[in-house]
Amino acid sequence: MFDVLGVPPQVLFGQLLLGLINGSFYALLSLGLAVIFGMLNVINFAHGALYMIGAFVAWLLLNKLGLGYWWALGLSPLVVAVVGVLLEKTMLSRLYKLDHLYGLLLTFGLALIFEGAFRHFYGVSGQPYPIPDLLKGGQNLGFMFLPNYRGWVVVASLIVCFGTWFAIERTRLGAYLRAATENPVLVQAFGINVPVMITATYGFGVALAGLAGVLAAPIYQVSPLMGTNLIIVVFAVVVIGGMGSILGAIVTGLGLGLLEGLTKVFYPEASNIVVFVVMAIVLLIKPAGLFGRER
Amino acid sequence: MLKSLLCGTALLAVTAGAAHAQVTNNVVKIGVMNDRSGIYADLAGEGSAIAARMAAEEFGNKVAGAPIEIVVADHQNKADIAANTAREWVDAQNVDVVADVPNSAAALAVQGITKEKKRIFLMSGPGSTDLTGKACSPYGFQWTYDNYAMAAGTARALVEQGKKNWFIVTADYAFGHSLEDETTKMVKQLGGKVAGTVRHPLGTSDFSSFLLQAQASKADVIGLANAGGDTTNAVKQASEFGITQSGQSLAGLLLFISDVNALGLQAAQGLMLTTGFYHDMNDETRAWSKKFMEKNGGKAPTMVQAGVYSAVRHYLKAVEAVGSDDADKVAAKMRETPVNDMFAKDGKIGPNGRMFHDMYLAQVKTPAESKAAWDYYKIVKTIPAQQAYLDPAQSGCSLVK
């Protein structure tokens, strides 16, 4: 067998696969951010907190109502979407005419409040959430042991990512949405209710975060801090991909997951900064991001 | 008879009056500094402040005629914030003693300041042996555990079971490095070997990559030289990737009861760990813990929180005895007095500031064995203080002659 820089290929394949799994989470979260930024021009800093709420709703459904993983997969994003719609209607919608900075500050504040509230009631150590029976166990791929659940995460997130991309870029509804961001007044003149569409978009974007939360619950501890740990990386992903670019968010999310996986083999200490190094380089060379358009 | 009694009372009154005058600013101020919002908030956090208050209450919130005041601060696991807070406490707020400070990087920063400003530093949270080694201070006391004790307890137990080939997953900062170092030394000293190590950033959520590297090493034991949320995520994911099922043992080199609670017994069962305290050991620990749990939302004390109580209590006893909050006099008194409370029996403070007390090797119970909430540990054996901790002569501390 040939080694790559002293690393056996089995190890390398294993790490690449793991990178793909982490990349799926990045893709799913950055997709929601990109949709929200693209359509609403809001930098949604509460995304991580809503991801955390998605996981907590799953945990509460299981422990308070006895509803298992598959119920949570449907209900939890719905709950998060409702929370999102309320936020948009009562607060965010007042800020659209102002600078981006106000939306960022508001959502950042909301994120701190959500996290603080959950920390107060549940502590920081987190709560255990079991892997659903159907997805227990794993496959021996020869070069590594792949838990079934992780395989499921990749498949689920790829389906959702592709579905979202298709809905926005290839359907009539998506065309309305894109038109509404370009020129809301004109689109409204054609008889389309733009404010409702924007609210729905925000609800959908945060529902994606909620879904990612449910997918993450059995892998990580369901903890109030889980969103903070991830959100900064996800922001970097969106910036690298190009703010508001749907395809950019998906491709960059997966790509950076892979890159991080490789870093963990060759120089693990740097695994939490490699994404930001890439971000700095991309911003220097292509300020609008890899897939973004100059505005 | 009556006369001598009167004389005695008068003498007492005089000394009490004198003592009163000896406490600067007429208040003994205890600053409990730790992580109150991040990954170590459950193992220390507000619980440590509660423990300090319980110690103060035992003295009626008054010592040597002066009231006891307890202030708290969040160092957010950042050494610079810890250093700034300590400076402000000492310079502007007249804090007499800093307590707890988990996170060795933060504790090393505070140790430097308390040493320079002559303030007592009661360390319950941090694990680095440097704090009583090359960075020791005449005013610094490391109370609850240290990385040597963790390595000596857990590593020795496993190596003696014949598990000699180790792989260590380390948190990449002062504490993790020190724990990795102590474990490596102990494993080698007992005839084992360390096949490899990998270092991960503090606050990692996905451990699968590091665990696969550990798995590929074919080591008998995967030692986790990290703490708090990092350890729980690693243990949880190790069972997901079938590591424990395939015959490799997992050893949490620093595992707190709050971590075991977060993992749930299903995932944590069978783990071996070393601890300085367990609430369900005897009537005394049970009584104290019951009181603590009432104040702490039903959560049992971790060894760090129990250690804060013991350290603050010992400090206050010394202040009472010398009738002053002068750091030199109090430190001398603390060193010469044995520690006897619900936490430690006949504990002794070494010349390097290490408090020597018995440690316990414990194993996490299975869900079937656990009869009540927080009924998590079987105490496998008691590790006598002299065996549990490093001999001060070998600590590298300049105070040891």
From TrEMBL, chain A:
<keyword id="KW-1133">Transmembrane helix</keyword>
<feature type="transmembrane region" description="Helical">
    <location>
        <begin position="149"/>
        <end position="168"/>
    </location>
</feature>
<keyword id="KW-0812">Transmembrane</keyword>
<dbReference type="Pfam" id="PF02653">
    <property type="entry name" value="BPD_transp_2"/>
</dbReference>
<feature type="transmembrane region" description="Helical">
    <location>
        <begin position="100"/>
        <end position="122"/>
    </location>
</feature>
<feature type="transmembrane region" description="Helical">
    <location>
        <begin position="265"/>
        <end position="285"/>
    </location>
</feature>
<feature type="transmembrane region" description="Helical">
    <location>
        <begin position="12"/>
        <end position="35"/>
    </location>
</feature>
<dbReference type="InterPro" id="IPR001851">
    <property type="entry name" value="ABC_transp_permease"/>
</dbReference>
<dbReference type="InterPro" id="IPR052157">
    <property type="entry name" value="BCAA_transport_permease"/>
</dbReference>
<feature type="transmembrane region" description="Helical">
    <location>
        <begin position="200"/>
        <end position="220"/>
    </location>
</feature>
<feature type="transmembrane region" description="Helical">
    <location>
        <begin position="232"/>
        <end position="259"/>
    </location>
</feature>
<keyword id="KW-1003">Cell membrane</keyword>
<keyword id="KW-0472">Membrane</keyword>
<protein>
    <submittedName>
        <fullName>Branched-chain amino acid transport system permease protein</fullName>
    </submittedName>
</protein>
<feature type="transmembrane region" description="Helical">
    <location>
        <begin position="68"/>
        <end position="88"/>
    </location>
</feature>
<comment type="similarity">
    <text>Belongs to the binding-protein-dependent transport system permease family. LivHM subfamily.</text>
</comment>
<keyword id="KW-0029">Amino-acid transport</keyword>
<keyword id="KW-0813">Transport</keyword>
<feature type="transmembrane region" description="Helical">
    <location>
        <begin position="42"/>
        <end position="62"/>
    </location>
</feature>
TrEMBL record, chain B:
<dbReference type="Pfam" id="PF13458">
    <property type="entry name" value="Peripla_BP_6"/>
</dbReference>
<keyword id="KW-0732">Signal</keyword>
<feature type="signal peptide">
    <location>
        <begin position="1"/>
        <end position="21"/>
    </location>
</feature>
<comment type="similarity">
    <text>Belongs to the leucine-binding protein family.</text>
</comment>
<keyword id="KW-0813">Transport</keyword>
<keyword id="KW-0029">Amino-acid transport</keyword>
<feature type="domain" description="Leucine-binding protein">
    <location>
        <begin position="28"/>
        <end position="365"/>
    </location>
</feature>
<dbReference type="InterPro" id="IPR028081">
    <property type="entry name" value="Leu-bd"/>
</dbReference>
<protein>
    <submittedName>
        <fullName>Branched-chain amino acid transport system substrate-binding protein</fullName>
    </submittedName>
</protein>
<dbReference type="InterPro" id="IPR028082">
    <property type="entry name" value="Peripla_BP_I"/>
</dbReference>
<dbReference type="InterPro" id="IPR051010">
    <property type="entry name" value="BCAA_transport"/>
</dbReference>
